[in-house]
């Protein structure tokens, strides 16, 4: 340590005190950042902690090394090694009690002046202070001083010398006689007392590591090595020592002192500090010169040596506590993995904790668990929070909630599914209304034509328009106005169907939007209603709607102004009204008001202001296009819109694509974007089984959704989904799972299962409930041999269980309560698939309530414990 | 808002991995204390350790569950150069009485000559398959041909990656359009060359795994890698923990039917975050791959979420030691919550658990004028749709008035 390079020492007993030493000693207290008031002189060490400078001691110039007195009292007593080899005791404490006063200022002077390299207090016998000095050919380099030694007895011998060399010195506090002198004609670069025996001192000498025993100073144990700097004992493993040389750290086991047990990967720059973490086993921190990272070696994984083969694992990490180059660091003596780092240049300090590496995992039910060090933390999303908007809820949570509310299962009032989904997503709303209108139209068409028109309805407006023929063009008057409107309107059967799918009209062939307008008024959608009235060339109705809207409770009075502006409509091309409306309309915030004026001010056939107003719902724009675009323009517009929707994955576009290949493409980009396979699955179930459901992408969504339900243990929901799917796509039904054959003839014992193989009621056929048509159910229908017996009641399978109601009465099924359903389950014949013994379910259950092994003699099968998945309960049962 | 609570793990050394089973009701942890612990969630949501046993003669790096249709099966890998497969046995021991289940070793996979750094079961549609990777750069793929016999595993493939491997991830896609694929990450610390993530794909014709892609832009050591659950998406998403969090999107390019080579991908980087300020240790996806959790050397767990525009944002920060987060700039709510939570923490500390409450910083609302912004009409404009059937006179639907809509919902639960 040179004078300019700072070092840092934690107080051995005060967890909040440390000393920075460079040219002077500075004592700091570390504490939490004081809320609002920031005291002057407080240095921020991290986001949470700050340090206050308590004391500065610049009494001792030429400091080379410092060591903190290891005992509680006197506190803040430091030994300072100087460039001339002297060791001075000094203090930073305020309370100077008698012992302290006595000690402070004491000096220990070697015979020959040379640099003091290192100091080490004996951890047990704290009077002993070892100092390591540079080489002097006539002197020892390791001097062990006794700080309690009185100068008095020495005066006879040494005082004379002292007087000769340091005349002005206060001789009363100078000690010149060390207790022990070791390592003659050698240099000592580092020292540490061994923790396993406080009489042993480990010293890094010039070319070797030496262990001196104070009980027998003539002998030493040593090993030749270059790694002699910074010797330090692992506080958790007293035989383990680290030392370094240049960029390489050597780890020694004092029991096998011949060679290092391992050397760590060499660093390009020389090391300046190596320190064991006091709070964790086997964690060594190293620092190289001119570096801003601290390298950590985690050696706790070293397995106990079994043979020579085992090499220890070391997890190497580097941490970067601060941006600037690090001068030194010190582990906090008690706080877990915490250190304070001081920068090399300007004494900037950083409080830093080395975090354990956290490993983590999500569960399928959106809870997150992580392991930090030896601790586990479980983190569950708290749905009661409610502060987040619905938009922020993760789709996994949304899908779970929607599955719980039977989203997608309303096959009659299809539109209601969007309410089941929460009713907050406009795209879902649009989607389910599209599907609802498609279903309605398809049902009507079926009634009318009995033909195969369904595919047309479900193929989307894009395809419907393509087949359009016989379009008639008409010019209609403005209703309620005598003026001739110069607006051509188009009509065909297909366009009419498209309008229906858009929801504007309910049933053809008349285009009557009045019911729709009234419903919009009811929903207080004034602007939209007015726009639609206007598009139907009923300007008076539009004004009426706007007036109504202005007068309604909390109505927007500005609507009256808009109505006023509307009433001034003139079709003169160069009128002021037209000019002003076309420029001012862009300032209207409501898109529907905006498109109204766009419509009124645009030339016939050039309605881009309406058609490309993206804030207007797709269905309204499409309906508008169907009314006002000619056969040439319409398909082009629809195609363009369809492609936009497909690219964006906007579910409103399902109106255009229908449930076709195009629709699957659109849904694919929706799924890519949102991962909402639930909506995709339910939506595509409505498509035609042949084309859409067979699409591998659709199959994939369905499989993924079922898998999600399984993972959430929503097994009932999964089963319900499968039932729904089976209705739409009969080929998806699985085959019977179990086939029970007679022990004697090998034929199936079920009566009706063979006749109706997919009825899925197989189990009750083996039992006794139902099947009133069968005369004898206790024997095999093939060979008439008796069926197996219940292991407990010894009745043959098929015999009614006594005391059970509801056997053989078919009308019982009508008012089956939950209790009765479960009671009937008792009659089911069941068996263990492992030992293949069985009986009535009720009997078996009551047996296993008290027993673990099978009721059949000499069978040791633990039937009930075999299947652990069966122990899981579905999460969606109530 | 997320609530964290601590579980008394009782491992004697660092925990290296946490793994959930398919249903999220069981959890396995492994540690440097050479043991694996299995945890079961009780009815009231508490985690109970139901098994703990010594698995290896070295640090256990990773533990992973097989799909439950193969039984209760775990695999672990260790510094002791082996991977092991464990199966829970019930009914054959009396441990049940003590609330402990019994796990027995079905096989030890001893092919590696160095530390086995990761082990992962393949997606279930591939059968019972297991991939391991080791520090000497070899990925091994094992298969149990008979799923009833877990003691027989055959080494099917050996892929040499040339770089020390630290982590692997199977592509979970079950789509037939996607051949089996796995990504391997390397913790080689030499940053002068890239390609620390390699992607291998199974080729039906050659019946071999061949390299499909190398992410050359990843030059720093990779600590963890994770494919997102696919959920029927047309592309794959890969999260990488290196010196930052990275999310890659792999879009398979349409392959001509004649070519037999591996699929070509359009590799796009979707997000890159250096918020951890240092090495990122782990990444993990939630079940729908809409939330990513990452942990780093800053001691924090961070959550990431994409909005509709594929903009990934930080959705939450949790301190790794479960303590409340303080002093976060730009989060005025964080400070106020800390007061309440520290109180709560101290109370719960008496009961042996600690809890902290965290608020997530608000996500930026979708900006107007972005790609999807113009396609989403303001919700107020679409509200009308359900009104339409309400007043349709032709429809004999008397119960459709909006006020009763919610009342006439089908009963949510009948089971």
TrEMBL record, chain A:
Gene Ontology molecular function: zinc ion binding
InterPro entries: MIOS/Sea4, MIOS_a-sol, WD40/YVTN_repeat-like_dom_sf, WD40_repeat_dom_sf, WD40_rpt, Zn_ribbon_mio
Membrane recorded as keyword: yes
Gene3D superfamilies named among the record's database cross-references: YVTN repeat-like/Quinoprotein amine dehydrogenase
Domain MIOS-like alpha-solenoid span(s) in chain numbering: 399-628
UniProt cross-references to Pfam families, sorted A to Z: MIOS_a-sol, MIOS_WD40, zinc_ribbon_16
Assigned protein family: Belongs to the WD repeat mio family.
Residue stretches in coiled coil: none
Keywords: Lysosome, Membrane, Metal-binding, Repeat, WD repeat, Zinc, Zinc-finger
GO cellular component, one term: lysosomal membrane
Name of the protein described by the UniProt record: GATOR2 complex protein MIOS
Residues covered by the GATOR2 complex protein MIO zinc-ribbon like domain: 742-864
Cross-referenced SUPFAM superfamilies: WD40 repeat-like
Organism, as annotated: Austrofundulus limnaeus
CDD domains membership: mRING-H2-C3H3C2_Mio (cd16691)
GO biological process: cellular response to amino acid starvation; positive regulation of TORC1 signaling
Organism domain of life: Eukaryota
Subcellular location: Lysosome membrane
TrEMBL record, chain B:
Keyword Transmembrane: no
Classification via InterPro entries: Sec13/Seh1_fam (IPR037363), WD40/YVTN_repeat-like_dom_sf (IPR015943), WD40_PAC1 (IPR020472), WD40_repeat_dom_sf (IPR036322), WD40_rpt (IPR001680)
Localization per record: Chromosome, Centromere, Kinetochore; Lysosome membrane; Nucleus, Nuclear pore complex
Record organism: Austrofundulus limnaeus (Annual killifish)
Listed name of the protein: Nucleoporin SEH1 isoform X1
Recorded family membership: Belongs to the WD repeat SEC13 family.
Residues covered by region (Disordered): 391-415
Pfam family, one: WD40
Any one GO BP annotation for this protein: chromosome segregation
One Gene Ontology MF term: structural molecule activity
Keywords (A to Z) from UniProt: Cell cycle, Cell division, Centromere, Chromosome partition, Kinetochore, Lysosome, Mitosis, mRNA transport, Nuclear pore complex, Nucleus, Protein transport, Repeat, Translocation, Transport, WD repeat
